Amino acid sequence: MSTRRLSVAVAVLASMILASTACVKSDNDTHEVFNDPDGSPGYSLPDQPRVVALGWSDGAVAAELGVAPVAIYDWMGFGAATKGVGEWDAAAFGGATPELISAQSAGEFNMQQIEELDPDLILDVRAEADSAVIDNLRKIAPVVTAPDGTADYAVNWRTQAEIIGAALGKRAEADKIIAETTTAQETVEREHPEFANKTFVYSAKFGTAYGAYLPGDARFDFFAELGFVPNPPVTRLQSSGFFAQVPVERVGDLDAQTALFTTIGLPFADLENDTLINSLAVVRDGRAVKLPENDPTVQALSAGTPTSLRFALERITPQLARIAATG
């Protein structure tokens, strides 16, 4: 994963969560599409719509709702083997094989390619709020985006599923998969009261620097919903939205009661052999999980869909329970 992907992860503050209060607007000239409070889209789709999914994990969410996109922008580089999504979502496509739009251009879409796909609807929900791009996409088909004022990529997993569900006329299905994941999280939280109020960091080593995900990012919020709390020194670092840079002299801020460390664009050995990280008590005392960036659990957390989060939950819970048992 390149450092560019630091700016395309899932992030949103709790106050930004959509509560189905956005208005519906479907303008035949501009093809603007927002969400209807009752969950009904403001336009008509055929029974088997041709959907092009451009936002981070938008295509995976659509597939989870029973609508397999004809094309997906493969942000995470999963590739054709799993149809441009993680292994947890590949089966949702059934026999359909989406065209994969390369992530090499980092969001600079090939408009001709998209137009030739002849979409009925374009999903660009968890994405950069680039008005020029959206205006060009609107010339091709209706575009579903995050609500006005939402920061780039700052749509949490529940909101994303709600928006896409409403856009596809699948709001009931969206509510169902959201409830399934929420119930799974609540079950783990109830069965592991030892997680409650334990300080936690989710940190990444990249280049010669370090960073930590913050409350509001799906990767951190996933653990917060299990009872963990942010390590206070990390919350005081200067942030760039969902991520705080951690200078070398502040690596000690990562020394929480529990931690997950991973890499971005580096060999895992660079993390395993990092003397600063290994000097932290959370690592020395065996209270940290170290995972490479291509580990399925890390990828599932990064994907941040209802299904991927359940996938991650099943795999990370035993490791967290072992750590919590050490005190």
Automatic annotation (TrEMBL):
Its main location: other. GO terms for biological process: iron coordination entity transport. Keywords: Signal, Transport. It is found in: Cell envelope. Residues 50-324 form the Fe/B12 periplasmic-binding domain. Residues 1-24 form the signal peptide. It holds the Pfam family Peripla_BP_2. Transmembrane segments: none annotated. It comes from the Bacteria. Belongs to the bacterial solute-binding protein 8 family. This is Iron complex transport system substrate-binding protein.
